[in-house]
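quick one: beta-D-glucopyranose bound model?
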Amino acid sequence: MSKKIAFGIDIGGSGIKGAPVDLTTGEFAEERTRIPTPDPSTPEAVAEVLYELVDTYDLPADAPIGVAFPAPIHHGTVRFIANLDPSWTGVDIPALIHRTTGRAAIAVNDADAAGIAELRYGAARDADGVVLVSTLGTGIGSALFADGVLLPNTELGHLEIDGHDAEKRAAESARDRENLSWDEWAERLQRYFAVVEDLLSPDLVVVGGGVSKKHDKFLPKLHLRAPIVPAQLRNAAGIVGAAALAADSAGGQTGAGAQSTRGQSTGD
Ligand code: BGC
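yep, here:
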């Protein structure tokens, strides 16, 4: 069986990361490249980095490319942006990439990409019922699945809780910015996840983002009705999920719409 490869890119507030992904295993097929996010992080500046990133690898001209982006992505277009340059609002990401690299690409919300990766290859592998994957980083990302089907762009990090945008109080960046102890941060996470659990009654909650490698410091302090477990793909999840969705899209499924995570990348 020949390897099924697609290229995944994860655009974040501090770094832009990319790697070819082996879709049979969900692992990087070559080493990942990370380039610091330009400041200001305008579409033009980021597009140049994307060009450099893609150019680092010897990719076939028709290699599927998927981009995970930290904003709601509606049919390829950024609806609003919380943590990158405001000029991203309204940008059609696949069109921008095509102009810059001459290649076709799909774009997806970063948490949705991470969620897809966790359902296909990680902590929520083949989980049924309602699954919430929550990423804790500069912001709070959310990916919501019912029986393996993604409801895209849920944006639960922007719920207003106790008069605040939830991610401003409970993201990993708030812990850093306000120098919170693990206990103090866990209290804020408890409030966030309790509200989300009351709204959605998930069967499983998966917590991702870079900080999930220190899950023993805060996950045991959280008490939900549903099991709450650390992500397995951690920071690789955005890249892997974006690559998997790009391959689905190249194979005839739509890019970032509601779809089964079980897609085409497993099994064949
Ligand atoms: C954005 C989401 C994103 C999350 C994590 C939020 O501020 O609105 O789209 O998934 O941050 O990056």
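The chain is about 30% helix and 25% strand.
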